[in-house]
Amino acid sequence: MKEYNIVITGVGGQGVLTAASILGWAALHAGYKVRMGEVHGMSQRFGSVVSYVRFGDEVYGSMVPEGKGDVILSFEPVEALRYINHIKRGGMVVANTKPIVPVQVSMGKASYLGLGEIKKIVEEDFRGRWIGFNAEELAIKAGHAITTNTVLIGALTQIPEFPLDEGHVREVIRLSVPPKAVDMNMKAFDLGVRAAKDILRL
Length: 202
Prior knowledge:
alpha/beta; 8 helices
């Protein structure tokens, strides 16, 4: 398989790096070569964070080049735009629509784009496809907001072109989280799967 490139973005504390690790291990166990890279924000919590997961039969370099990303998995809607140049034409954005408003916006020194504007940029400027839903709300329904990353991973597995088996990813999550958190994460994963299916009408 030709390389498959995932850009995972959000802010510190949302579980971006954990999601990257889960997807990297799932790809490795599926028999692919895997390369990963990460960039931390200015602050550990609430600073912008991006991680790259690349896998395939042959993969060179850990950073996803601009215009080569198959999917952006975004934990915060505006963060999807911060790295939108990485997505290829026709690529997919899977986004949590619950915003984390920057301090500058709260102080009235900057504005925050609405979801409609963000979706329009993805679809019209980059010919991308958009799956957006409140993943944090579903994570809380599963048991805790900390499972937002698991909700988004569940949604990611429903993209028609996504090359990793849903059951295989589920098993990696089961092995990666503490035993007491397995049931909660499995529920979160299932809620993400259902949300994506409803949007994609699968």
